[in-house]
Amino acid sequence: MNLRILSALSVLLLATACSKGDEKDIVFTGIMDANTVRVSAETPGRVLALYADEGEAVVRDSTIAVIETERLGYQLDQTDAMLSELQHQTAASQSRLQAARVQRENLARKYQRFKTLLEQNAATQQMVDDLKTQLDASDDELSAAEAALAALRSKRAQIASGGDIVRKQQRDARITAPLDGRVLVRYTEVGEFLGIGAPLFEVADLREMWTRIYVSETQLPDVHLGQQVRVEIDGSSSDFTGRISWISDKAEFTPKTILTEETRTALVYPVKVTIANSGNMLKIGMPVTVHVEKGS
Q1: Domain boundaries along the sequence of the chain
Q2: Strand, helix or coil at 48?
Q3: pLDDT tens figures, 149-199
């Protein structure tokens, strides 16, 4: 008899505690995740060195890999040789242009002088016409010299741009960390040949992590952007303060990962909760419980 009374009292106390908890908080479960960046090769080549491994912390802009650039060095030498040759051609073209200008000025003065002599009957019309023909030819030669010099300058700019591209590829061959974080995955080994876009590392910023919860339509009025929530690590007494940083404006069906016979047709709203990872206690893939205070 006493045993039955004690059992009934225990059930009553448990129900009361659950009722009070439900009135205060709405409880959700989630899996911790982090913002990650996949570091890829921007220039093709063989991996010469790797300075980071899985699980290691990296600092933004620090070198984490080096790709071989010997061929790029040869291309740059070829570019420099072409620019040197073009410089000599440009100098010669400038000399021809200057000579054409001098010749044109001399012919112009001579033409004007003979026109004056013609008016004084001291020269013939044939002499003036011949000088006019020479002056027109000199104008054409001057225009051609100017065009040739302009073409050489355009070619120089084109070759110089090609050299800038090669130098950029050389800089890209030194792979740097895109952020302060930790290497989650290393995709390559020293000596492996990589093409453009081939992944080398996956780096995560673990200073701030997030989890996604799914809120039903009836619970949505209690959830607001910027709202603070309490996050518990499953199996631990540690609590974190999180912040609701995103609420979807579209409902979707309950994800398969949390499907039950009762909820498989329910519509829910995905909500993102961001948590500062103080002490680096939170890990990717860690299950957590999120408490949202009702009416907050």
Answers
A1: 25-67+184-293, 70-172
A2: strand
A3: 999 999 999 999 999 999 999 999 999 999 999 999 999 999 999 999 999
- With 0-12 CB in 10 A as exposed, 13-18 as middle and 19+ as buried, what is 179? middle
Handedness of CA 158, 160, 163, 164 (dihedral sign): negative
* b/e per residue 268-290 (b: at least 16 CB within 10 A): bbebbbbbebeeeebeeebebbb
Residue reference for tokens 């949505």: 220
Per-residue pLDDT, 179: 93
95-106 pLDDT tens trace: 999 999 999 999
Domain covering 25-67+184-293 assigned CATH 2.40.30.170 in the classification = yes
What is the C-alpha separation between 69 and 170, in angstroms, rounded? 6
Q: Three-class SS of residue 215?
A: strand
